[in-house]
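Quick one, tokens below:
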């Protein structure tokens, strides 16, 4: 058993409905991340018409609109994209912690995958280096939606 490989995740996004929320604050970062996320979702088979995108002013606002989207029961998973950068005060810590906790609570309360795509960076260069994470966000959304479907339908 010690040489076992991890199970291969289901990466087939066909038939899934994915909601994406993106913060406009730090748009050069979040917009580029959004583009990569959408490209990867489509590469995984999620139909363009099955991807719904809404924007919010900043990362702190993501949980409220995510809750509204989850209440609609239209989405197999949500991806929440934001970028919180360190400043001269601790505001970045407050925003990032509150956002992460709010999104996790929603995932558990609504029993739907909510992908935390809120990057926290100390510098612009660090944030730019993490834009590629949009690909990971898309893959995580598809994998989690499929895993949840499999578990719920194969009791």
């Amino acid at each position: 058993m010690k040489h076992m490989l991890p199970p291969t995740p289901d990466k087939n996004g066909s038939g899934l409905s994915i909601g994406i929320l993106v913060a406009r604050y730090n748009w050069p970062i979040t917009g580029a991340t959004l583009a990569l996320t959408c490209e990867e979702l489509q590469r995984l088979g999620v139909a363009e018409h099955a991807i719904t995108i809404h924007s919010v002013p900043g990362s702190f606002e993501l949980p409220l609109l995510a809750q509204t989207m989850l209440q609609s029961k239209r989405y197999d998973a949500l991806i929440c994209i934001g970028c919180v950068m360190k400043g001269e005060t601790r505001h970045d810590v407050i925003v990032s912690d509150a956002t992460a906790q709010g999104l996790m609570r929603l995932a558990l309360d609504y029993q739907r995958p909510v992908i935390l795509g809120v990057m926290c960076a100390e510098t612009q260069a660090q944030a730019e280096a993490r834009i590629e994470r949009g690909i990971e966000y898309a893959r995580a959304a598809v994998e989690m939606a499929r895993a949840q479907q499999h578990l719920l339908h194969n009791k």
